[in-house]
């Protein structure tokens, strides 16, 4: 980190709680909003508010970008904008979410119309959004003029985006009685090894965002498994992120169940959770290991590890959310912790661009897709239940990899460490960028 500024505390709960009160395939080439409609004037209207007017901005679509042709009609004969994303949810029970967030958040409206039912964010997403856009400058200028330090300003920028996005998805949240329509925001990645700090940060974020449909993201590190239990027990809904192995996933489920049981709440219906199980990064690492082994058997298993492990994760999900313990919680209104497929963009251009979406379709799951995966699936994805269509094959692939010397737990720990490190670097890089912005605006003295 540059030494041009001092962070009062790496824990946002400590640095901000007294200041805020509730009131792959070259992603750079992808347009910000990938869903175009034949009649964009439907969305080019102004939304009045007490302080300002927001114009819904539909960016210019690049050559070859997907345009949804909305030719279907509803029961009354009026036009209905329908895509395979609607079928994904209505026919197979999987919620399609969008893995991106930036200003103006009203760019999400066409995506919502296309069937997107939630949004996920992370430090890397905000690093890209804030550092590459001037849309944050006015608010940032005001914050620095008010004397906010750089990290405090960062959190206020993030909180505003999350609040605005939550408002857009609130109708879905209400229609599903808290089953869907969530927007996720992650605690500081600097807290990945800090159990108590994570609990405090999660409670703080939940309080300042102050929206019923916000998910607080907590990494599934060993230190944060107890944090998940405590935060759930406090009645806060959680998106558990950076899950790379079955062992760690089972610990996450147990933390959720333990938290529900420890909450003391008579009505558990509004405490929900998703478990973000990462897929494409698993293949990226294991493929390299298989290529190093180099045998025909090893090379034949490339591109199969991630989906196989995900299929077994779904089996574990079905097992854990059944039986006497779970049924006792259901009587209090508890909802299953849905599996969420994360890291669904294809890293290897030789693989099909829907590799981490199409084979993982099943009820009570979520698929969060970045631009390229979302566009690909809407364009040529097929909707059918696939997650448990060939469980024996998944078990065979998993076992075959073990026989070749692949240690699944070691793979999970390595990917977890790399994921935490990547988010920390994005977080630090963004704080450096904000400091440079402050300096360029001549708002702070060095």
Automatic annotation (TrEMBL):
Any one GO cellular component localisation term in the record: cytoplasm
Biased composition range(s): Polar residues: 1-14
Reaction catalyzed: D-sedoheptulose 7-phosphate + D-glyceraldehyde 3-phosphate = D-erythrose 4-phosphate + beta-D-fructose 6-phosphate
Keyword hit for Lipid biosynthesis: no
Domain of life, source organism: Eukaryota
Entry's Gene Ontology molecular function annotations: transaldolase activity
Amino-acid biosynthesis keyword on record: no
Pathway in which the depicted protein is active: Carbohydrate degradation; pentose phosphate pathway
Disordered: annotated segments: 1-35
Cellular location(s): Cytoplasm
Keywords associated with the record: Cytoplasm, Pentose shunt, Schiff base, Transferase
Low complexity composition-biased segments: 15-31
Pfam families in the cross-refs: TAL_FSA
Biological-process GO terms, alphabetical: carbohydrate metabolic process; pentose-phosphate shunt
Annotated family: Belongs to the transaldolase family. Type 2 subfamily.
Function: Transaldolase is important for the balance of metabolites in the pentose-phosphate pathway.
Cited PANTHER family: TRANSALDOLASE
NCBIfam families xref list: PRK03343.1, tal_mycobact
Protein name: Transaldolase
Organism name: Acacia crassicarpa
